[in-house]
Batch of 3 targets.
Target 1
Amino acid sequence: MNTKKKIYLDYNATTPVDKRVVEVMLPYFTENFGNASSDHIFGWDAEEGIEFAREQVSNLVNCKSTEITFTSGATEAANLALFGFCKKNSSKGKHIITCKTEHKAILDTMQALETDGFQITYLDVDAEGNIDLEELERSINSETILVCLMLANNETGLIHPLKQIAKIVHEKGVKLMSDITQAVGKFPVDLIDLNLDLAIFSSHKLYGPKGVGALYINKKNKIEIDQTVFGGGQEKRMRPGTLNVPGIVGFGKAADLIFSEMEEESNRVSKLRDQLEALLEEIEDVHINSKKANRLPNTTNVSFENIDGNHLLRKLNNLAVSRGSACTSNIVQPSHVLKAMGLSDELALSSLRISLGRNTTHADIEFASQEIKNTVNQLKKAVI
Ligand SMILES: Cc1ncc(COP(=O)(O)O)c(C=O)c1O
């Protein structure tokens, strides 16, 4: 067994399931194992668990429980939302606006829509990762049906001003969708206040189980999407298929816990993140990406000049940190987010995303910063 000290600093990739969440899930595997669609006592018990979780999840993001559709994750929710919205609204226009720094769950779905004849505008970002709101406004034309912009970036933590964006977009008669996956649970997300039309998020980023997510459809704004997956009538036909009852129950409990613990935990983690950045800034030629922007409290993205990025992660094998997003990190390619912010391929490849969470301690930060410092300095010597 590998006895080397291991430190997990990749909470934006996924989080451990909270033990209190596991506890409420367990009976739904063994005793309350019914199919939530079955019309008997086992089914009714399962259905009760689902509806309780729907209340808990909607409470976390301040929406009505009837506006939440459970899915297998944010990626599936993105597909249902984008294809469903486009199918419903294609007679009004076939133009969508998004941004170059979105997650692949959005960008790859946009690419698929392009092959279906939709025209997609990919907004540029500045060096911090911000979009230009005037450029957004100028990009909206008579064919535009949807703007899709994430609330918080998974790689840099940058937060887009979505409330302001919603105002611009709605004044033009266009709808706004957002991937709020990285924001939920890290700072208060109020869907009524943000006035989003569609939103997607995921359980495993907030100490819930993997394979569960949510699609929010704003009822007040009368948003409708067409069905794009067919089968049973579950989730009002939007997401047919037998519901993952233990997973959804766990998502609900995780939502409940993070809602009550968010403020204290975000303050604690943001102090640790700032300490980590101060320690890393002692390294020569280091850049903290998006540092001047409004950012998530737990995320830092650091670039090191003049080192071989390919060796960096390999040498830091006792630290779980990420280069680019987890979904693409086994393909060694410079991060599309950092490239959009103007970093060279070389600098993007020698960048790390470090994301902190509930189990991160001050000792972890000291250990990690020392490991990174030693490794970067070693690699610098190797280049000379
Ligand atoms: C911003 C963002 N959107 C979407 C996803 C995909 O979520 P899921 O794993 O639930 O499909 C992720 C996860 O990496 C993410 O960080």
Target 2
Amino acid sequence: MFHLRTCASKLRPLTASQTVKTFSQNRPAAARTLGQTRCYTAPVAAEPFLSGTSSNYVEEMYYAWLENPKSVHKSWDIFFRNTNAGAPPGTAYQSPLPLSMGALSAAARAQPLVGTQTNVDKLVEDHLAVQSLIRAYQIRGHHVAQLDPLGILDADLDSSVPADIVSSTDKLGLAGFQERLQVLTVGGFYGLDESDLDKVFQLPTTTFIGGQESALPLREIIRRLENAYCQHIGVEFMFINDLEQCQWIRRKFETPGVMQFTNEEKRTLLARLVRSTRFEEFLQRKWSSEKRFGLEGCEVLIPALKTIIDKSSENGVDQVIMGMPHRGRLNVLANVIRKELEQIFCQFDSKLEAADEGSGDVKYHLGMYHRRINRVTDRNITLSLVANPSHLEAADPVVMGKTKAEQFYCGDTEGKKVMAILLHGDAAFAGQGIVYETFHLSDLPSYTTHGTVHVVVNNQIGFTTDPRMARSSPYPTDVARVVNAPIFHVNSDDPEAVMYVCKVAAEWRNTFHKDVVVDLVCYRRNGHNEMDEPMFTQPLMYKQIRKQKPVLQKYAELLVAQGVVNQPEYEEEISKYDKICEEAFARSKDEKILHIKHWLDSPWPGFFTLDGQPRSMTCPSTGLEEEVLTHIGSVASSVPVENFTIHGGLSRILKTRGELVKNRTVDWALAEYMAFGSLLKEGIHIRLSGQDVERGTFSHRHHVLHDQNVDKKTCIPMNHLWPNQAPYTVCNSSLSEYGVLGFELGFAMASPNALVLWEAQFGDFHNTAQCIIDQFICPGQAKWVRQNGIVLLLPHGMEGMGPEHSSARPERFLQMCNDDPDVLPNLQEDNFDISQLYDCNWVVVNCSTPGNFFHVLRRQILLPFRKPLIVFTPKSLLRHPEARTSFDEMLPGTHFQRVIPEDGPAAQNPENVKRLLFCTGKVYYDLTRERKARDMVEQVAITRIEQLSPFPFDLLLQEVQKYPNADLAWCQEEHKNQGYYDYVKPRLRTTINRAKPVWYAGRDPAAAPATGNKKTHLTELQRLLDTAFDLDAFKNFS
Ligand SMILES: Cc1ncc(C[n+]2csc(CCOP(=O)(O)OP(=O)(O)O)c2C)c(N)n1
């Protein structure tokens, strides 16, 4: 504790107030955060108790005393005065008189300068013990809080009571309290004895249990700590390494009397519980054998969400985007989002036909969007619930992305207007890795939504699995600790405690704009769904549940006992809501047809006609004026700001780009630049996200320039193109695919007027995001009538780099295309190509030229509807000298080419052509090189299929008809059981009415996507080229 003495002796000439000023000038606010190193250099002084760990405590008190001498216990006041007055070491301290609780002011009677060294040591030790005790409650109080409404389980999966906390099951009953004090005092953890219970202790500045008091008897300290930390709320926050945030939480939970509710608030809470409870009962009465994943056992969820929304609305939020699993979803739709009840009820009618195209989805997966007045705040609020698949937690990043987009489009840079609420089940929250990935996006500049409120419906069971078999962490919420989110566990049978933590959670989000978790510890009254028998697997738990009084009944009895409502008022509230349900049920009978479009979570006003149809079925030319190309090219090859030093290597890259532009050509990077830059000019926001996308994994893009001399000084030339251009966002993501792709999908959901692209580092990595692809991107429109124009850029190509970085698995995407391989569509249909696009579930392309890549990106936005676009992008072609496109192919009037036909000598005399080779992507360049080497340019035509899906039946039919004497072969560099073969072959056969075989030139089937051996790779390549150009290769099979 020499620090204090040093400070004191240094500051002695000053008065207390001068000292405070000087000290606070030297000590910025941030210096008071935990972990800050304190630095004092003068020699140790002689006060014997000023040593070791006591130093922080006494030092805290000293600072408090400097600010206000009355804020510390009288004995310390005297000590500090004596010290400052120059008392010699060992003489400044005098022991205080013992104080009883009712005699706090007796401290004032302490006499100066009397005392013994033993007293001194004991006093300091006791104060330290009390401080440690307070800290123990703050850190570990939640372990003994009474969180389980059933009273049989431990929310932290641990029945032991921390040795340094004196809690017991019968909380503040007198007998129990005495018993607990015994644990503490007689041989207890901190060496305090019973005689200390009535001694008054100075409270450190890190607690608020004192309210107006700065000192309290130990007995009262313990009582208040128990009250704050060991009742129905368990607060986990002491891992947060920010003093201001910790203090904020302590103030919220420790301040005496902080959890007060007005009678009005209690009545509102009761009414909300009535709705929540009676809604489930109504469904149960009407459709007792239908699955609905009811909320029974956690009915408090509805008032909890409404409280979070009310409080957030009060703080200025006008849009809340929610994501949630099955449990209680219908109830949330009905009572939080306020979907018309008849719309919900008619989903139970198995006789109603679906009006919309697509497969639709079950009622407890559908989304919803609703703008309404918040009755508590009288302000407008838009609430949406994002549709989700069964895959638990998969919607988390999607909700985040949509929230980010809504914030972006309304200029809400701090998340003050738009926020997300995510609901979770306890088993899923602990078990699904996507939760962790999503948390890691929460504080990244390009991904933060400035705080999400997470609400866990912790019914202490996952389907049939006990939590002890479902997680290794104490709580299901521990994953949130990685981002220092405070976690409020609360017993759901105490509705007021729940409302309180929800208010605090909303305030936390509003104050710090960081994530927060509300853990509603509850139970599940029925089985996993209403048909399930829970007694098979959880007999004892369910015996207890059978005895459990529903929370509504409990709370109603409490309020009746308190005189807040009377029994008839309560019954009236129930019958009022029952009547609402009955009337809606009657109206639901009038519904003749089911409209999934009533369940849209993200409307795009103005994009479609009022009937939800595209405004046209055409797509304009995707070409650009030469000046536009030249202008974008010149910005792309320069540094558009002054005094900015770029890397020498990059200067060379930009110079090369400049030369390309001068020669009126583009490579891959420039083509992308042209597409992005021109769309920005047209007011289309572009967001490119993924691992290392700013530079580009293959160092070809360089969309963010870094000054070589100034740290973090960057320039994004794309944002310097046009005076009123749309913003360009390019952001390196965290090392996540599932989370980031989900996020971008959500971002793309918010507006049709944005080009949102996710680039995989290598295409094969998309498989860790497979759930987003399988559950959202591929079937999203069919399930939820919701279009999405997300673009996936998947680097793909057999470059001899081994099995891991070669294949983006085209076969998987192609297998999930919804077009029929065996049915030739009506090729005469007007705008066949656009209709085909409109009908497909996604577009899959592999462009062989930069120009076509440019066109397909622009087409994505110029189309009058939105479809996901999967692009297999090249690696070696990024720098291939032949992979260039002239401006001529990008001018007005030009289009994306679904097929690039042969245009060489073979096309001049098609009758002479012996083989028509079809291929896609980079292998084209291997094939043309080989053809030239073999001097077969007249005999072999090569046609590139650039758009694989929807399959260009019309153009390919023309190609086949053009070469009547040619046999047909599909050539790919991928193994036979992979790539495109299985997709292309039946469609080619259908195109030609199965008139000819379609041969295969490519690698043999294999388990791995590619060999790890370079020589084998080259041998395989040569073999497939040999087959492709051996005109007799297929003779024996004919
Ligand atoms: C990713 C995933 N795996 C498995 C399932 C099957 N499943 C549906 S609900 C459920 C239990 C979920 O438990 P919990 O998260 O605690 O929510 P609860 O059903 O208890 O509300 C399981 C395993 C699923 N839907 N999603």
Target 3
Amino acid sequence: MDNNQKAYLKEKFDNRVNFDEMECVLYSHDIAAIPSLIAPLIGRTVPDAIVQPQNEEEFIELVHWAVQNNIALTPRAKASSGYGGVLPVKQGIVVDFFRLNQVLSIDKQAQTVTCQAGVVWEKVDAALAKEGLTVNLYPSSYPGSTVGGWLAQGGAGFGSYQYGWFRENVVSARVALPDGSVSIFTGADLDLIADAEGTTGFIIDLTIKVQPKDELDIIAIGCPEATDLQSIVEDIVKADLPLWSFVFINPRMAEMKNRSPLMEHNGHPAEERVLLPASYVATIAFHKKDATQVMAKLQEILHRCQGEILSERIAEHEWKNRFKIMAVKRLGPSLVPAEVVIPLSRLGRFMAEVENKINQPVVKEGTVVRKGKDGKPEVVILGFIPADQRKFSYNFVFSLSLSIMKIAEANGGRAYSTGLYFKSKVEKVLGTERVARLKAFKNKIDARGLFNPGKVIGYSLMDSAMRIGSVFEPLIRPFGNHVITHIGESKKNYPLTDIPADVVWYAYSCSQCGYCVEECDQFYGRGWESQSPRGKWYWLREYLEGRAKWNQAQVDTFLVCTTCELCNLRCSAALPIEPSWMKLRGKLINQEKRMTFPPFEMMAEALRSEGNIWAGYRKNRADWFPEDLKDKHGPGRKAPAMYFAGCTASYVEHDIAMAAVRLLDKAGVDFTYAGEPENCCGTPMLVAGKWDLFADIMRKNIEVVKQTGADTVIASCPACDMMWRNVYPDWAGKLGIDYNIKTRHYSEILAEKIKSGEFVFPANNIQPVKVTWHDSCHIGRASGVYEAPRDLIKAIPNIQLVEMEHNRENAHCCGSVLTLIKDPPVAADIGKTRLDEAVEAGAEKVLALCPCCQVQLRVTAKKKNMPVEVVDLARLAGNALGYDFPDPNPDVHSQWGVFDAFISLMTPQGFAKLMGTMWPQLIDAMPFGMGLMMRVMGKIPGALNLMKPMFPVLFPKLLPMMLPKVMPVMLERVAALIPMPDYMREQMPELMPKVMDSLMPHMIGDVVPLVTQPMTDYLTGKTK
Ligand SMILES: Cc1cc2nc3c(=O)[nH]c(=O)nc-3n(C[C@H](O)[C@H](O)[C@H](O)COP(=O)(O)OP(=O)(O)OC[C@H]3O[C@@H](n4cnc5c(N)ncnc54)[C@H](O)[C@@H]3O)c2cc1C
Ligand code: SF4
Ligand code: SF4
């Protein structure tokens, strides 16, 4: 793609086109790990650009333009498929469907839903649930794959027992064709689009059939042999049992599941292990109304076929974890896939042959389709062989997938899909007649093959390789069979790298399924793969294999994760994602001394000198404390519990701390408050990667608690709570510090007292109001406190609590601190997503208890003009007790204004602008007579231009010597640019030099190109 073409795309799509080389690498693959011997046959698959059209008009324009310019277009939804369909084998443009993600309409009468192609199943189903409906069927990639992607790829999944293949459940599809027209496909014409992987057109939206959402009954059954399983299903079909879904695993899979690591929280298992028997385990779902009929007949069938009903616990566990099939990948860390469809009548034979011929542990998942393509029952078998893609032997194990395919074909089966790898099997997969139609249509509308080249039909090197591989399969098989596979996590057994060994293992264990992508706020605030957990794992693989290097942008990508922890819960492989990024923060910033976000340097200095991040004076830390409570709870008093206010409630949103202590007092809690000696909890330094400083602060805070005689810390701020509850104990353990401190959140104490009747709100005159509750990530997912704040809200008279769509452990992050510090406009977009939910729920007020969430949501509400008020929970409860508190909004907006201005200043552009206001002083401050020399050069035409190449070398050396001299004028200029409160301006002479010392060595390289021309202009007299 040439520069003119790039310029066109940039003008047309602005921030929805991406040419960044590394970003393009992240859009060059799907879930499959291709072995090193096969990769060269595929060739380069890194696109020239990624484009994200946001509506049909843009799709059409893009198609017209690409066809005119002979540029290949490869559609990509969530890339959760593994057949190479999304690989841009002719480079060109990857067309990302990310922004076509809306549910358009639901027709209850007709029982259909119309949605854009790029919407994820989970989201469609959530919209349907509000109308009492649900989808007919879905793939087990439901949390991370799209509706359009499934029609394009083709497939069966949960619900296929009753509803068959997905294509049968599609009413119509609206498709952008290669000639730039848009056409609606229905009935038999859908064959030209379904399973065609975008080779004939891009699905823009589609209408699919849905069903009433009835409650399901789930049971699990076990049986020893595949032949028994086959008999059971055959009898079920014969008896016409009204099942909705029938899926099963083989004994090897059961064994692997029993061994796969559990989801962890704070380094401890966060779920119970449910052991599966070493047998075939099937999970059956049917509508509750059919339970009597199903159960009566099923018992009889099982009795006949050596099956038994397994415990409810197993059924519940298997159903709850039905999407988490990738947990077993942790034992690989790679899996070689083999996916086939076989007639039900050959299930037993097929399984037995695989066991006989394949000398590797093949773990299998099966899905029964009652009415298969030829009307008879068939079974989709997804097999995996654990292997290690980093070893050459992976090539041999990979070849066994061909062996499985051959066994399937010998039993009347076929490949599941075509894509890039199985084009040679297309007639078996789709049928001869359909292929002929598809080819004729393709020739007619896309003769040059620009739409998803190299897929489904046509010829490529891969096809010959597959054919040859198939012929020589019996010769290759022994190699695959003789590879010794170690099954299990072995985090230590690595080529040494600078990345922690467990993080390396996780990078390869990540299945790239994409469940973590859509709901990651770092991702949805920006929209690019590099910003998602999946993208970061892939980047790490690229780094480990020597194809990527650290740069500041990549460091920032790991730093800017908001630590919301939602990805940990969503991950199909139960990977500890957020803790892995946390480890990298320590490695990158604390160990390697790379640059953290510049505002953290300012906070660090304020923290070192005054113990808080807002650059207030320590002597003012306790100013908020109510005068009348000082004797009872104030500084200097000993008590069993200590209230910890944290920085933001102490210096900005005073109402939070004031209301919290009022509530605790009214509830009869014996507590004290340390006052001035209290320090920031350290969260900002932990996430900034400044871990030495964090450890220092933690030590001081632990000492403060000891001085008060307390053994319990009561927090109001969720980040402080998380430190005292989870992080300090862990760090204290590692550093050998005595730690016997319990942590309670004030809402937990109050909820208990409300429950026991010890604390009651009086009837009050508060106007009835509808509120919603924002679960902040750090009190919710990090500390598990979900119900106590709700109990408190419900106890306040005249308050009606409504829930937002994403609540409790699924709650969305507000987008605070790290996004706000790094990318304020992105923070406002993420914040709006959260506030939109509150508006949709009909709430007038959003209640929160996290000071940082409140700052972020208040700033967002103002920026985006949202019709909701953000109120602190303790404040509302305190109001209900008859107390008034100062309005925090003026302080929030003025202090945020200062912060925001500092964020803009502490960028290369900000510093360049600042330097532009002080050229005379900067030139005079140059050491060794350089300033004078520069002035003389300025007078000689062209001389400075000759010197320009030296500036990047010169400036980093000179600047440290110049800064002390120009500091007074710099402080004046900063004060003029940023109207600061007095206490901050007073501290600037001490803070600013330290901040500059920390930042400039990292940033100067980016500043020099920005100041070279302005300085030359000044010296040559073009500007003053
Ligand atoms: C954990 C896991 C479980 C899975 N379970 C199942 C399962 O139960 N059943 C099953 O069938 N598959 C399953 N899959 C495979 C995969 O999820 C499905 O094929 C899914 O439908 C792909 O959807 P996607 O949105 O990721 O599409 P992608 O993978 O992005 O695309 C699939 C193909 O369609 C094309 N395409 C995508 N969108 C469009 C469009 N709008 N217009 C035209 N062409 C388009 C792409 O070019 C590509 O060729 C699973 C995968 C994983 C990782
Ligand atoms: S913790 Fe939150 S922001 Fe960070 S990667 Fe996970 S989901 Fe994204
Ligand atoms: S991190 Fe987990 S959820 Fe995300 S792509 Fe990897 S395996 Fe899937």
